Every structure is written in structure tokens, then in C-alpha cells.
Amino acid sequence: MTMNIIVVHGMRKGTLNQELQHFINSMLEDATYQYEVAFLESETRNPYRVVEQVIQSGERDFRIIPFMIFSGAHFLDDMPAIVQHFKQQYDDVSFTICEPLGHHPLMVDIVKDKAMDALAQTDYDAVILYVHGSTKYRKPEEELRAFREQLTLPVPIHVLTLYGSISYKDYLEEVVEGQKRVLFLPIFFYDGYLVNMTKKRIKQMNLDCQIDFTTSINFDQRLREIINDRIDD
């Protein structure tokens, strides 16, 4: 039977990893498949330790499910590095790396519902989709633009990132020029440090446009369906 390894970014400090573990376990409590949760930022439950423990228990077939929105450096560098590490040590192990969760059509539905809920309450001139991005790769930006093309809203949709060639620090002022009120929608799994830092920095920019933030995805229950589909693929 295939062992599914759900790889989450996590944090080395604080209780975030425990909270993420609890959420994933609750979300998948009725799962009929095997899975383990690993954190890139962890001394004790990083993917290398988790996979090694499972190999020692006798498993040889693995499916890696990156708990990530798009294909940043963690997906493009870290996931292949994990696979290469174990294939160099064991001749009889096999790995499948699944696509990031943001590629699934349900993610478009999640984001659209969040935007439409806000638009139903307030008149906005535009919506800004905001993701992590990457300083090393342009693929997350390409995927974000493709994501925007799948999304239909009654107002213009702009895309910005934290890192990369379309960073909000460089382009937000240009995007909101001439606008009175704009909705800023972070496509992150939770309202953590990066989202809160972005809010603080945008406030410090003293823009003429009012910018309202939605919450992040914040563990929408439809993530369960996305993970199940990744496992069934």
C-alpha cells in the first residue's frame, strides 16, 4: 500500500506545526488511506525523518503531497531533493510527487467564493490576488496568471506576489492608482506571519486607495477533497 506524505512548510518555533497537524488530522479523520504529515521547518518531523521512519517500518511506495499553493522553490527544489536522497540510499523505493493544491479546480471555487462574499457586502473597484511567489523561479507567477484566467468576477482582477517580479512592494501603488477601494485577497493557507507582515507594510505605504483584506483560505474544508483527488490520481 502506498504511504502518503503530506509535506507542509510549518515553522521551527511556536505551536504552528502542532496546530497544522491537528487541522490535517481532523480534516482527514475518515480517510481510508495511510498518511503521515511532515514539516519542512522541523527538527523532529521533517520529510527526511518521517520517510526514513516509514521505510524502516517496511513501506517502499510513497506519494508526496505538497501542501502548497503553487510551484515555488519548495516544490521545485525541495521535493525532488527528498526523492533523490532516498533513491540514492534504497534501490527498491518509489516516489510520486503530486501537483501543488492550487492547480486543482476547487481552489478556484474557494477563492471565488471568498471574493464574491466580500463583493456582496462592499463595492470594490478591483480585486488583487496575492501569493507567496519566488525570487528564484517565475513559475509561481505563471501559475497565478493562469489561475486568474479561470476566475470570473464582476470587477477587474490583478495579481501580485510577496516575492518575485510582480512584488506588491514594487507594483501595488501602480495597480491601485485611480482606484477608491480595492479588495486584497491573500491566497495563503492561513493568516500567519507573512500575511500579517504584508498588511502592516501596506498600511505604512499610505496609499490614496483604501485597501481591505479578506482572510486567507484558512483551511477551507474543500481542501480535503483536493487532497483526496491528489491521492486518487
Automatic annotation (TrEMBL):
GO terms assigned for molecular function: lyase activity; metal ion binding
Keywords assigned by UniProt, alphabetized: Lyase, Metal-binding
Record's protein name: Sirohydrochlorin chelatase
Record has Metal-binding as a keyword: yes
Family annotation (Pfam families): CbiX
Residues annotated as transmembrane: none
Top-level taxon in the UniProt lineage: Bacteria
